[in-house]
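pasting 3'-5' exonuclease DinG for the record, 936 residues
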Amino acid sequence: MRKFVVVDLETTGHTPSKGDRIIEIGIVVLSEGKIINEYSTLINPNISIPPFITNLTGITEDDVSDAPKFSKVAEEVANIFKDAFIVAHNVPFDLGFLNFELKSVGLDPLHQPMIDTVELSRILLPQAPGFKLGQLSEYLELQHDDPHRALSDAFVTAKLLLYLLDKLHTLPYETVFQLKQMEKRLKSDLDLVLEQRMDELSFQPLLRDDLEIFRGIALKKEEQLDAPKHDSTISFGELLDEMYQPNGSLVKSMVKYEDRPGQREMSEVIFDSFQSKQNAVIEAETGTGKSLAYLIPASYQAYIGQERVVISTHLTQLQTQLLEKEIPVLKSLLPFEIKTALIKGKQHYLSLKRFEKELISVQQDNYDITLTKAILLVWLTETLTGDIDEIQLPSSGQKFFRKVSTDSEGFVDPKSPWFSRSFYQKVRTKAQKANLVITNHSLLCTDITSDYQLLPSYQKLIIDEAHHLEETAAKHFGLRLDYITIQYLLNQIGTIQDGDWIKKISDQFPIISEILNNNQWDKWWQETKNELDDLFRFLFTYVIDQHSNQVTLNDTGRYQYRVDDEEGNNNKNWNTIKEMVTRLSFDIRDLIHILSIIQKESTENKDFSHGQSDDLEEIKPNIDKLQAVIDDLEILFLNNDNSLVKWIEIDAYGAKNAVYLFCEPIGISTILNERLFNEKESVVLTSATLTMKKSFSYIKERLGLDNKNLVEKKIQSPFSYDTQVQLMVPNDFPDSRYGNQQDFIYATCEAIYSLADITNGRMLVLFTSYDMLKKSYSILKEIMVNDDFMLIAQGISSGSRSRLKKNFQAFEKAILLGTSSFWEGVDIPGSDLSCLIIVRLPFQPPNHPIYEAKSKRLKQEGKNPFMELALPNAVIRFKQGFGRLIRSSTDRGIVFICDDRIIKARYGKYFTDSIPDIPITYSNTHNLIQKASDWL
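structre below
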């Protein structure tokens, strides 16, 4: 084993060329797998240390005032690295800083081989929850005594490196060989390490009996299932007694189990609905424990009825939570066996056939694609599902995965060598054998509209997060089309001149080359590209030219324009668009015609040997994809259909063809009624937010639920909201509706800052507009002179929603600003969250295309769009936001609502009557801040 020198630096910032300097160096030297030396020193940077860095590291200006300058230790530090690998957690950062400082004192920069433990962790630990040093040390249980101090970080990085090198020794020869082929395109110099491992493996048989090698790729073998439990004839009442009684099996098996009376009640309502073949809507308030409450009757029904029960969730993370947390607990408690399966859409599963093909072609691979291939190779030695949600890919790795997902596969011949190993086929087989199948709303909707069955047959269904069903179904029954997707499809098919698919089949089969040349393929392909460019550029200009009252700016910074078929027919420019769409459709048809000739030839001509080219299998999928573009263009531009809402979105500051086209049905109640609720024996819908003012009427109407065969139940929360929460509304804020928006934002920011002082941060601020969030962030940055609080903002601070949430929980004094996606599904229990601020009541903008179309329809029906649509949507959203604060019986907190319409407007009662009864204080800001201080 070679010598590795692990380094970590603390610095005043990120960029040495802009004046940032090192303030601490930590070095650990490894040889033969053991730590043989360490080195640590503070450095006087000769500049002030930003408060944020002091906050993070604990290093103050006093600490470094007597420390040596870098020039004093430079030579000593450089000597430590002689004849060794340089190792760091994000090598470009540490090595970049070191070399900048070495050069500035006249010494040579370091040029040894290097290893980046971030990159190596991504490859060798594909299922880690994150790749920051703190996350990895927690995941691998490496002791990390003093995070953000150089020597402690270097020690942990050294331990991580040893762990990773051990992990490398568990990989088979084939995987190591493939990684070696990619090594030149990675940051880390792994050539010698991989070469040595291959030499060791050359003379050893396959060491792991949980792997198989197929066509040069190492795959994890299927596990053998445990012997089934002894079946039991227990009644449902007895099962509930056994589980829910004060000293029952739930109490014994779960840490921190809280008795929740509503949980048993919910289980009983669901089982009764199944038995009486009725549909049910159940609102289970926060704290009910609804996942277990529905899993118990679902499992029992599947067992005694010898049938399948399907559970559908909105988000894939809830599916994963059910499968990994709730169901294992349940299985350990049930006296009988249940078989479970999780099934998602094809786009979630890796296609081994596609991956094998991409593994061979490396000519155009950039860094992200090389890294993604390396991650997938190692993951294949670990995964049994092939479900991409198990791992995190780099940003453009997501795009690469679309190329190698089962969705991109087209038809797979059951005789294909990969068919028996297809992850998607395995998951479908498993679902056929399961009696509890977990899926998501999107696949559920695909299944009820599709000509062929995606889910195995079932008669009983539980829909969790049911307040999302309408939106998901509408998206699903609609369509979206954009320039990039069509462009990508055309480029993938390609021309005879380039290296793409059409060139490959043309080179393999002279007769195809002849057909393409005779039919002038390249000419029509270029013609199609030109028409596509012209159409989308024209659409971009068309939206820009519309009156500002017809175009709105949405949360993601895109302009939206609703297409009105009646108005469009009388508009000269709209007629030009229709002509352009017609021309583009004709051009695409010409391409389909040429591909159809090739397809006919390939099936009828004996000279074609299918065995020699997988590429021929792409003909039919490519024809289908091109035809789908024509169909979508016709629906969007050429067919008048009053039941659809159509709109265009453009990236205002994006490319001139960054145009996205959408359409959805205005209402989906009839479709759901006919194809779901009347088709199945029993459908149970549940969520924490289904009622408005204690009534289910709104959700029933939106989803098409009949009253005649419906059970309605509201399960109260077990929490004592009246003693756990205070709701406060200021009466002295400027009214933002009358041109005072800037004053309103300023007042909001002052309140945020004052409350944060009392709650020590631990605050979530929910906005309804991204624009208002950005302005508030800037003002808060100005107000916070001493960087007292860590300010984390969606869309400004980098990272996903769950990453921002984790960062928020990691800092002692933090404020988290969020928009749309933070109103729900964010769970921050305990003292991490003490204050929730709702800036505005969450009404949708009245000129949002979907809202506009629905309003128009309601007016035509003689109904009031505000009362029937805007208000119920806002109340349900408000309840979602309110539910972020109290997540257990010991939580306490303040809900501060900056929008006094909740008190003053006639409709305000709809909001306050839809949440639990809690004390409400309506007073001036000064009094509210004082009361918050006293109460907390």
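The mean pLDDT is 89.
Residues 568 and 829 are 51 Å apart (CA to CA).
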